[in-house]
Amino acid sequence: MNIHEYQAREIFRSHGLPVPDSVLAETAEQARDAAARFGGTVVIKAQVHAGGRGKAGGVKLASDPAEAGEAAEAILGMEIKGLVVEKVLVAPAVEIATEAYVGIVMDRASQRPVMMVSPEGGVDIEEVAATKPEAIFKEAIDPRYGLMPHEATGLAYRLFSDPALAKQAVRALAGLWNAYDGADATLAEINPLVSTPEGEVLAIDAKMNIDDSSLFRQPEIEAMRDEGAEAPSEQRAREAGLSYIKLEGDVGCCVNGAGLAMATMDLVKYYGGSPANFLDIGGSSSPEKVVAALEIITQDPSVRSILFNIFGGITRCDDVANGIVEATGRLDLDVPITIRLTGTNEKEGVRILEGAGFEADTDMDRAVQRAVEVAS
Ligand code: GDP
Ligand code: MN
Hints:
By secondary structure, this protein is α+β, with helices and mostly antiparallel strands. The chain folds into three domains: 21-92, Dna Ligase, domain 1 (2-Layer Sandwich), CATH 3.30.1490.20; 98-222, ATP-grasp fold, B domain (D-amino Acid Aminotransferase, Chain A, domain 1), CATH 3.30.470; 231-375, Rossmann fold, CATH 3.40.50.261. It has 13 helices and 18 strands. The strands form five sheets. Strands 7, 8, 9, 10, 11 and 12 form a six-stranded antiparallel beta sheet that branches. Strand 7 (98-107) and strand 8 form a beta hairpin. The longest helix has 20 residues, at 163-182. The structure holds guanosine-5'-diphosphate and manganese (II) ion. The site of guanosine-5'-diphosphate has 16 residues, from strand 2 and strand 10.
């Protein structure tokens, strides 16, 4: 689950990270009042589940309350990466001497959380990784012990040679680890962690992703869910009880079972295609779930081919077939559909589909190949 910067700031603060004061505003008037309370220059920041807000015009400095109101007016309602800004954060502006990157992500290669730091902060860390990988320093963290003091110290000196700054960075890195660990995060990031001309180290951005599987034991974080800020497709999928993750490709996949969904995506790649999504309609699929799945897949404009890959176990092929017929009757589809069905009630499923003018294959290889072909 994604949370907003203002929420991640709160979690960071509770772990002792040096995060400047800030308030949330939902109107230009509230932003103006907040700026008046803070006094001096403030920064107005779009609160959306997307990075790169600075580049998109979603972060503005304002030197007085009137300007703060204008900046908030401009940012509220703005669209950043397809998401509409409904709230802004107002914070006293910080004078920046240097900008560093610090972050923790769950790393599959080392099977551990990895802390990454770079003195080249502020910009896209992906860009630094691509063009200047030697400027990124990493430490895999053993979750049994957490971030060890010598690890934090080593990384802090990669960011600052001045011991006074490095000492503050050590505390910030320890706080970031505690926030990541305590919140069951899969990502916790400060970009930038700045130093000021007065020699203070401050976290002026905050980003966290929380492991969905841990939300049952993180009720305070679960309560931070902002449904209005989620991609509509993901919201719809959650309501319908489907596991859905949007990807970059053009072959929409509708599969039952997470393992088969993974295997399907692998096979799409193997035959030269690219999956548009991961979608697991689950074990006992009712026709309603299939209808919801097709609606979600077809709302993605990059989908050029739809592939059903169903292995009937508890899921009955005739249920899925009825769902496909019902959904295609309800929706105005202009994307070709390839169907592979096998297992429980396969014959009934094929009969239903053929009766409605569809072809149904029982061979996974053949069906995936066809779905990839029609997409290109
Ligand atoms: P992002 O673009 O979504 O990552 O948003 P950030 O919060 O990282 O802001 C983008 C950039 O705006 C930062 O890298 C800073 O250069 C600048 N910025 C943000 N807050 C302040 C501030 O308080 N003072 C100054 N001078 N610049 C800021
Ligand atoms: Mn940032």
